[in-house]
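[SOLVED] Need 3D model of a two-part complex

Original post:
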Amino acid sequence: MTQGTTIAGRRSSQRGWLLFLPAFLFFCAFFLIPLALMLQESLKNGFDTYAFIFESPVYGRVFRNTVWVAVITTAVCLAIAYPYAYTVNRVGPRMKMLLILLVLMPFWVSLLSRTFAWVGLLQDTGIINTYLQLWGITDGPVALVRTPFGVLVGMVHVLLPYMVLPLMNTMGEIDHGQLQAARGLGATPLQRFVRVFLPLSLPGIVAGCVLVFVLSLGFYITPAMLGAPANMMVGELLIQETQKVGATRASALGILLLAGTLISMGLLAAVWKRSARRTEL
Amino acid sequence: MSSTQVTHDDARHRAAGQEPAAVRPPRRRELSLRWMALWAVTSAVGLYLILPTLLIIPMSFSDSSSLGRISGQWTTRWYVELLEDKDWLQAARVSLQVALLSTVVATVLGTAATFGLFKLSPRVRTIMQGSSLAPLIIPPVIMGIGIYILMIKAGLYGSLFSLVVGHAVLTIPFVIVAVSTSLSQFDPNQEQAAAILGAGPWTRFRRIVLPQILPGIVAGALFAFVTSWDEVVVSTFLVSPEYRTLPVEMWIQARTTVTPVLAALSTILMVISTLALLGMFRLRRARK
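Solution:
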């Protein structure tokens, strides 16, 4: 009997690998090999390309700017997504549906269209500046587009769903018995939130922050459209290098960006393991 | 001893919702104030999510060649200009071709792979499923440059093939996620019952499994299609004058100026995707 199941199990597992194989090969050919080729290309002149990048003040500024924009975007996303996700879990089913639909909107309206809308809103002759002057609030146009502010507004708009969704899921799983117990023991609303609700929502906060941070690092369209050349991010620099100079330095930039992404993900995994161990205890 | 007992009793009363009447009014006022603040933030975020995108519609009808300047005069001339320019139509045709082909590739490979995954041990499955999501996290500029170098080395740069495989790599994860969700709700005992009754593997798949996981496959395919139709960054590395997709064409034009023609095109695309979404909802409701 036991032998029968193992043979059947092995046969089923063999068939499983067979079905998995085509996608795996495809994945190797068009995902792993390209990454390997990029690494090889970046090392074409040995480590000189990397040395050049690390020594150049221009590239250094782009890297610092990228990390900085990613950090601010993540912080703003968290600050506005947290109350939003909290409300989603506290309202009736119809309202909940509406709020979730609003968050999912980015998945059916193209990123380009939304970026164009922001240009029309924020540029010097755009809607916001027209009304600011019409109502006499300002004399001339206020610089909104081609500024770090423009980039931030656009990026938070695109990345907000990636913060709201994990927060919403985690908050939905919080056991309200624990909050009631805290209330029963005399905790004030603020104490209940800080000591009970916030720690329980921490996995969602971590997941959302890492997701938004990692996705921000590689952003191209939004900063290129709404930012100034002085606020350039790595993604845009990489494309410019490829188009104007060639693939070697761009590949090195790609490897550095990849390293940043993987390090962020590794940190997530580490935090995850620690928090999992803590809940077990 | 008596003091601890009192606090205990008190706690039990409150937990059961029996609070002393005197405490209630201030707490409720405080609560509603907190709710008002929460609602203010939530509505502001909701408006921020939807309003700018909807404003593209009036922008596309405004009679000013500068996007976002509201002159008070309305026109449809940007739409006329859009439809008269054959480049857009050509780009849309290429995009449709790429999206359809890459959706077929991604759906077939992704569905087969997910079936394979469910026959493996749970531990191996979790690892494989996790790593198959990598293309979603790796920045698209990196995927773009990698595939670009590969295609130059293989002599396939500028081909339709390069765009199709580039998009398929990006969209296979969506198919795997969607089909996995469907398959995890499927009871494998049904397949065994059919096997005992003498159904071969192909019949079992077609008559038992497929009808039940079809919604997952369709959802995955749709997501793959929409993603490919919208993809800009990886495509930027791969397009040639012959095969230029619609988003890349839009992006190239937008780099010089964002014209009202682009707003008109965005509006048309938004209307199409909204109709498709509503159609899908109706279809699902009709089936139920």
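Edit: Chain A has a mean pLDDT of 89.
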